[in-house]
Amino acid sequence: MTGRIITYELIGFVLVIFCIWLNEILDIPHYLLGAKPTPINYMESLIESIATIILCGLVVFFTYKLLRRIKLLEGFLPVCSWCRKIRIKDQWEDMEAYISHHSEADFTHTVCPECRKKYFD
Questions:
Q1: What is the per-residue pLDDT for 120?
Q2: Of 63, 72, 57, 81, which is closest to residue 102 (Cα–Cα)?
Q3: What's 82's DSSP letter?
Q4: Is residue 78 part of a domain?
Q5: How many independent structural domains does the chain possess?
Q6: Are 95 and 84 in contact (CB under 8 A)?
Q7: Same domain, yes or no, for 11 and 50?
Q8: Helix, strand, or coil here: 83?
């Protein structure tokens, strides 16, 4: 998943750089909007491309850093119907401990309105 997201980001930045150079060579505002024609300025396009590459590096770095923090629980977890423990390789582990260990989630316990009514009223 991480690799795919970063690949899409990189493709997007390559397209931006392509558009920068295409605009510089074809002078798109002149043809589409009727603006005054401008001469090709390779230095301007080079500076814009370098700025875009730096921005790309920062975006990819922070995306990678954030995606590393995301932990997903996927697949099936066999759960005991009575005590809610999870079976992991023939051993039973407390659900709260398992989820806290495998994700950034922390558990707090409270009583829902239905149970409060059922057990405390």
A1: 86
A2: 72
A3: T
A4: no
A5: 2
A6: yes
A7: yes
A8: coil
> Which residue reads 């505002």 in tokens?
29
* The pair of three-digit structure tokens given for residue 78, joined into one six-digit string: 């066999």
Q: Which two tokens stand for residue 69?
A: 């923090």
Query: In this structure, what token pair is assigned to residue 90?
Result: 């023939």
* Model pTM above 0.85: no
**Distance from C-alpha of 6 to C-alpha of 10, rounded to nearest angstrom:** 6
* pLDDT tens sequence across 12-60: 999 999 999 999 998 888 888 888 988 989 999 999 999 999 999 999 9
Mean pLDDT of the chain: 88
In a domain, 79, yes or no: no
- 91, 42: one domain: no
Strand ranges (DSSP E) for 1-121? 85-88, 91-94
Contact between 6 and 63 (Cβ < 8 Å)? yes
